[in-house]
Design brief:
Layout lengths: L2 H14 L84 H13 L3 H14 L2 H22 L2 H16 L11 H18 L15 H4 L1
Helix pairs in contact: 2-3, 3-4, 4-5, 5-6
């Protein structure tokens, strides 16, 4: 190659390089320019860095387990009021599982006759939650009446009247075709009479003999 050709080739190479010989995509030290190092992906975090599937633990209540269900650790008196830890249970609680309607009514009546309306409500509530659709409101109404009697015995007239009236309204829907031998007409009459008596004269706990309550025709005879 002649000297002239070499000079032209050198001129072309110099023209092809950027000014100062600097690669526009690299810094002076040769490091890539504007290249961000990706963050290492934490398996417990999303792409934005937020924790993945992190649940806030439930507040641990002393009478509830970690799932939030009542632990029933504290004993209760005959009206369902909590007693001090270690105190003697006034009476054994009813079974938690739902009984058959016939067994539930027998046990409920026995509990009402023993001045244990709170535990009667627990029996009725278990049946209500397990009952088929057409009967759910019936058992719910009966449970509310039992809660109303509980409030009456505890000395809460406002709560007693509200629950007695609410339960009476639900039970009354079944007056045309009463199931399970229930005396719907008499149940609604008793609930209305007790609510009226409490409104008239019972700011204090209603005596046990003033809240006698019968559910079935057989029990009322």
């Amino acid at each position: 190659m002649s000297g002239q050709d070499r000079d032209e080739a050198d001129a072309h190479r110099r023209a092809a390089r950027p000014p100062g010989g600097q690669d526009p995509d690299r810094e002076a030290g040769g490091r890539p320019r504007n290249v961000r190092t990706p963050l290492r992906q934490d398996p417990d975090r999303e792409a934005g860095g937020r924790p993945r599937n992190v649940r806030t633990p439930l507040r641990q209540d002393r009478d509830r387990d970690a799932g939030g269900r009542p632990r029933n650790a504290r004993p209760r008196d005959a009206l369902g009021r909590p007693l001090a830890h270690g105190a003697a249970q006034a009476a054994p609680p009813p079974p938690e599982q739902a009984l058959s309607p016939a067994d539930a009514l027998l046990l409920t009546q026995r509990l009402l006759d023993s001045d244990r309306p709170f535990h009667a409500h627990e029996v009725l509530e278990a049946v209500w939650k397990a009952a088929p659709g057409p009967e759910r409101e019936l058992w719910r109404g009966l449970a509310q009446i039992a809660v109303g009697i509980t409030h009456a015995r505890r000395g809460n007239p406002r709560g007693a009247v509200a629950l007695l009236k609410r339960g009476r309204e639900r039970v009354a829907r079944y007056r045309h075709n009463p199931p399970h031998g229930l005396d719907i007409a008499d149940i609604t009459r008793q609930a209305a009479a007790l609510a009226a008596a409490i409104e008239r004269q019972h700011p204090q706990p209603v005596p046990a003999d003033a809240v006698r309550f019968s559910l079935t025709r057989a029990a009322g005879n």
